[in-house]
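Handout, page 2. Input:
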Amino acid sequence: MIELININKSYGRGKNELQILKDINLKIDEGEYVAVVGPSGSGKTTLMNIIGMIDVPTSGEYLFEGKLVSKLAERELARIRNRKIGFVFQSFNLIPELNALENVELPMIYAGMKPTDRKKRAAELLSLMGLSDRLSHKPSELSGGQQQRVAIARALATDPPIILADEPTGNLDSKSGSDVMDTLESLNSKGKTVILITHDREIASRARRRIEIRDGKIIRDERAGF
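Output:
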């Protein structure tokens, strides 16, 4: 499903060049639950941005479902980001002027779904997240845990096969963080591929595969039981 081959990422040139990722080779199969763990500055968020097609590598190849990402037109990249990958961020990235229902509707608007269909699906997803009584609430009227559950509902809007979560518990208390992890595990059990970016080893230990990155390199790749 996802294959990175000799991926490098640098910023700047010459003496000012800063290499963030160094010869990353990684393959993630359909249905996996993977945690990418590493300290701040290790390159894990840059790796996530490349996997999510938000950023491009300086060199190397990225194959998504067998296709070279570098050969895809921007329209196709946008379609993949909308239909194939659901993004969950540490800062939630909800639109403050929109209520919960409207935030979850956004990806479906871009996908061209009919208003009645997208409203129905958004309400169903929020209900699944335990937020059926918060549909008309704006982000400022929700707790951190509730905002993150809205963000997860939004990530599921177009039923993507991949959930890409960047520090999804970083701004949450321990109880809310545990609830979010339970939700991600439940999604994986239903067939979603979950890729979790975190600096927290305890959070990472809940995944079935842990990839440790340090100074831009993968230094460990272990399956469940590590």
